[in-house]
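task queued by scheduler; priority normal; single chain, no ligands, no partner chains; default sampling; output format set to structure tokens
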Amino acid sequence: MHSGRLSSALLALGLACLAPERGAAAPEIAGAAETVFSWARDRCATWDIPDAPARAWRDAAGATHLVAGSEASRAMVGPDLDHLSRDCPVLFQGSGNPDPAAVDGSGWIHSAYTADGVHVVALLHVEYHDGADADCGVEMHGACWRNSIVEVTSDDGGRTFRRQGIALVAGSPYRHVAGAIERTGYFSPSNIIARDGFLYAYVWAPAYGAQRRGACLLRRPIDGGAADWRAWDGAEFSVRFADPYREDVADPAAHVCAPLPGVTSIISSVAEGPDGRLVAVSPAARGGDAGRVSGIYWMESPDMLTWSTPDLLLPVSLLWRHGCDESTVYAYPSLLDPESPGYASIGRRSWLYLVEVPLVDCRTGPERNLVRFPVNWPAP
């Protein structure tokens, strides 16, 4: 891991010229989808829906908790990933505060990590939607959108989570501009990866001000807290995200992250692969002159910073890119292996989890299911 001070120019040259080679033959989908959570059968409330990538952890008693968080995040609990049932108590829900300075609108649990099964750290994707302008109403829900990442913790194995203060992990150094028709901030954290005494996670950044568009890598010491997260600046983990509502930000450019070269879509899920390299999955639409292909793509990395060119794993229509002739679309991929001790690695056979969304008259409703496809990862 690149933990020391490196020359930015030298590192940029290395990242550009040393794209990692494939460590294994291409994985393949090995069967039909299985339903993990059925909205019609398992829901605890109308809007009890899977609305984020599936994440899992084991508590101190050995029980598995699986969360694909919504605005009121609930878990499925059981002895392992193959035997889960819905648990109706809410783990966490944002306050819905209409003040963007509060960073406490709606919150989705997107990541979770525990070393002992008792204390669990989670990252929240926190949304604020501006209702101050007519252009930012219900029909333009995604237009006037400010997003932040905050940290929450649990001391009961993940049955409940709490937030200590603002607990900002990643947020825009610019104040929100009322009525501005654009997305700002940091979105969709990956699962948390523990390596070399640190916790790591990827976030997605849209272009705004000094921030360039792309995937950014964050880390903090395992024994640290929300204030200890730092982002990669192209040479080291030096970027502290500033809070423009609680401090004067003289130079916003000093508080934005450096997107990783060549990564052009959200890194949704990361796991240690069968050959020791990291494997990630991403929802994307890629292609050349012959047409773009929507689906779930996979890529590899030896060091968390350099990633191979994405290859298609599963062609599916995506929630954010589909035609009105589609009946079902998909979102939020993640990789999980029932045999993994901490659900941070995958073996020769694992599962690709997806949120399945039926379309009715080209619109989505509350009905969403969590499904999984078996994946075979060939030996090198």
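post-processing summary
- The helical segments are 8-17, 39-42.
- The chain has one domain: 53-324.
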